[in-house]
User: Fold this.
Amino acid sequence: YLRYCAQCHGEKGMGDGPNVKAADMDPVPRDLCDIEKPYMKNKDNNYLIKAIAFGGLGIDKSQFMPRFSDTLSEYELFTLVAFLRTLHKHNALPLDFSTVKNEKRKVVVGKINVKPGKVSRREAMIGRKIYGKYGCLGCHSIDNRGGISGGSLTAVGKKLDAQTIWQIIKAPSSVNSKSRMPAFDINEEAGELLVKYLMSLKG
Assistant:
């Protein structure tokens, strides 16, 4: 929780993590303590597991909530939900760990077909929309707009090559074992445009 969730939901689960104000999030992250209104009380364990595994887009909610099915094992998802249940005072049914597996999904990162050179305006514009669709600005900033936990991407096109950027998007922990960024399941077509947009950012 502290590694992946606190940056938006806050250390105590109150929805007040450091990215919230920095990225001007709308909607703001969920209050997991049910202080303002009973949300967690009305959600069963399966719903919470699904929300974490498939992210906001997977349950028709905010794009700022990323999916973690490619980052956490089934066991880790269950333990995370078990922890979330300690943040509020409502009773919930215990989780059944009897058939839960602790194997993480293997992510194979192929070669991205992005050659060095000028990125067209159209490609950059579409890539920027993909950047917005996946909620990247929730943790990353460009020109001082966006979250702070993932660092600035203002000049990422100067610092990293296309393949390294793609590797970070698909399997961030393979580049930095302490990364707080989840693995993103983005197809190659959208990935190429996203990488092209990021490569166009020269500061």
Notes: The mean pLDDT is 95. The two ends are 33 Å apart (CA to CA). The first helix runs from residue 6 to 9. The first strand starts at residue 140 and ends at 142.
